[in-house]
Amino acid sequence: MAAASFLLSPRVTLPLRRGSRLLVSCSASSSSSSSDAAGGMGFQGRVGFLGLGIMGAPMASNLIKAGCDITVWNRTKSKCDPLLSLGAKFESSPARVSSSCDVTFAMLADPESAFEVACGANGAAEGMAPGKGYVDVSTVDDATSKLIGKRITSTGASFLEAPVSGSKKPAEDGLLIFLTAGDESLYKRVAPLLDVMGKSRFYLGDVGNGAVMKLVVNMVMGSMMVSFAEGLLLSEKVGLDPNTVVEVISQGAINAPMFSLKGPSMVKAAYPTAFPLKHQQKDLRLALALAESVSQPIPTAAAANELYKVAKSLGLADQDFSAVIEALKAKVQSSQH
Ligand SMILES: NC(=O)C1=CN([C@@H]2O[C@H](COP(=O)(O)OP(=O)(O)OC[C@H]3O[C@@H](n4cnc5c(N)ncnc54)[C@H](OP(=O)(O)O)[C@@H]3O)[C@@H](O)[C@H]2O)C=CC1
Ligand SMILES: O=CCCC(=O)O
């Protein structure tokens, strides 16, 4: 493939795999999650939110606090209660949410649940119609996103994929990064809502480009975490204080917020869940399939994926993904016996 050509700001174009084009535009928002009232926010209409887990709940909460008219649904109904006490309305199925709202967001666990909630029985597609929009912010593969998009647009509604970079705290603080692709007019229409929930947004062109961007980012993150865990354990083995290793890393060229944030608790073998380990393993699995589809070797990510699988088998699926360090500890123990 020819080298990518970049046209600098405000829009960047470059060749994309499989002959399609990737259109990138980035806007940094000066958003705050709490300052804008609905009227000043620039979005008129009712907003649905499906999926109120670690990420969905604070995202929906920020929309309510910004003055939006929000209707929520979650498979486990009790998770709606905190949002209802903030003023959200409740509907009993995704279809009822989407039929009562102008734009519906979905933040689901994985490709299977994202598809089911959008396209299954009583799914959001059943309530869609021309003039409405569906914004899927879950992390899924491009094929699933395209299937969901096809079903939604078959009703005459518009579809935008918008997976997010950033975890529990950025979701609470309205500082997510949106990786959007799909219907550009829907992107523009929901931009004020994205700006309540996030600090920046990228528009990447065709449906699928947001999904694959997210998988590339999380592939890198998953491997970085494994490498960091190896460093912490090695430092301990050779008699160094791992807390000092965290401090040294934080001052150098390989500093990443993730290391400073998670390092101290990893040293104490504590893994309070921000990004569940099962989701990181899902993202590596999807990244591996993506790489295979274009014959791109990603051996480091493949090795990292194996460790996350071991961690899952140790019962750590719902812990933070930093608990992958426990899989390395288990390897040491098994090699000593
Ligand atoms: N946590 C993080 O740091 C980040 C996560 N992501 C991605 O965002 C998505 C959500 O993550 P997160 O909030 O952490 O995950 P959670 O596991 O906390 O929440 C998952 C949500 O999906 C719902 N769900 C799961 N299976 C089904 C199903 N079969 N049918 C209907 N609903 C279902 C859950 O409902 P119920 O409550 O009933 O279980 C819950 O609302 C994932 O794709 C993840 O990869 C992206 C960026 C950061
Ligand atoms: O998908 C999860 C991303 C977590 C993060 O960006 O910190």
UniProtKB/TrEMBL annotation:
This protein's UniProt keywords: NAD, NADP, Oxidoreductase, Stress response
Q: Can you give the residue ranges of the 3-hydroxyisobutyrate dehydrogenase-like NAD-binding domain?
A: 208-327
Name the InterPro entries on file: 3-OH-isobutyrate_DH-rel_CS, 6-PGluconate_DH-like_C_sf, 6PGD_dom2, 6PGDH_NADP-bd, HIBADH-like_NADP-bd, HIBADH-related, HIBADH-related_NP60_sf, NAD(P)-bd_dom_sf
Q: Which domain of life is it from?
A: Eukaryota
Where the record annotates domain 6-phosphogluconate dehydrogenase NADP-binding, the positions are: 46-205
Q: Which Gene3D superfamilies match?
A: N-(1-d-carboxylethyl)-l-norvaline Dehydrogenase, domain 2 (1.10.1040.10), NAD(P)-binding Rossmann-like Domain (3.40.50.720)
One GO molecular-function annotation for this sequence? glyoxylate reductase (NADPH) activity
Cellular component terms, GO, for this chain's entry?
A: chloroplast
Pfam families attached to this UniProt entry: NAD_binding_11, NAD_binding_2
Signal peptide coordinates: none
Catalytic residues? K214
* Recorded catalytic activity of this chain's protein: glycolate + NADP(+) = glyoxylate + NADPH + H(+); 4-hydroxybutanoate + NADP(+) = succinate semialdehyde + NADPH + H(+)
**What is known about what this protein does?**
Catalyzes the NADPH-dependent reduction of glyoxylate to glycolate as well as succinic semialdehyde (SSA) to gamma-hydroxybutyrate in vitro. May function in redox homeostasis and play a role in oxidative stress tolerance by detoxifying glyoxylate and SSA generated in glycolate metabolism and GABA metabolism, respectively.
Concerning its family, UniProt says: Belongs to the HIBADH-related family. NP60 subfamily.
The name of this protein is: Glyoxylate/succinic semialdehyde reductase 2, chloroplastic
**Origin species:** Hordeum vulgare subsp. vulgare
